[in-house]
Amino acid sequence: MTDISQAGTFTLGGSTVTRLGYGAMQLAGPGVFGPPKDRAAVVAVLRAAVTAGVDHIDTSDFYGPHVTNQIIREALHPYPDDLVIVTKIGARRGADGAWLQAFSRDELVSAVHDNLRNLRLEALDVVNLRLMFGLHGPAEGSLEAPLTVLADLQRQGLVRHIGLSNVTSAQVAEGRAMAEIVCVQNHYNLAHRDDDALIDELAAAGIAYAPFFPLGGFSPLQSTALSDVAARLAATPMQVALAWLLRRAPNVLLIPGTSSLGHLQENLAAARLELPQDAVAVLDQIGMASASA
Length: 293
Hints:
alpha/beta; TIM Barrel; 11 strands; globular
């Protein structure tokens, strides 16, 4: 069994978690919509992840919708005492699978109760408020109204900790002025490094940062550079990308997702991948090239 302890630990809400976690998005069907083709297989992936030492899982009830959380409940309930489940609200799915904003008070309250019911929990460990102001990434807009609703649900005891997702630095500052923010989840990787300064700011404040799409947004040239480093290290591009993220900052928590046991083992093996300094220099150059483009 893969040992992921080499990934190190960081604080997430009131818990100390291993920095290599699991993202449950791919447990649903194609397009994160509907049921998976093989439910037993994805249940096995979840159980294998926890057996390997994964103690934080990222999910949402709008994955499926409802499907992913129901699979998590089937696979893992009653949950291990040290398992932190991080979910998110702020979006809903259209009948055609479209991703739609769901920011009204009724929608946010309903989303929290959907997560509680489908996960079979009395309180949610961490709830990320997912902003949907832009179609292709973070966009400015006040989060005061939806965050006020989420803070109210926290005071009611339904939510233990609050995070933010798909946000700008200004929105993080606005959120931190209103409530204790324990994590931020944004698109970030070797080639997409807009959040470099934000990551360092959050690290200084002891706030976790969970990057998604570790291989998203690469140009063919950047992908080739990554693949060349991976081949030299006898690793996969995903393993190298994850290892670089672990090295990037101590507050980075990884949530790679897969519905395959084989890919799960490959991803978890990134915890013990050592990146030599010359490889790091090549990988860093990917981000520098992207920033100057």
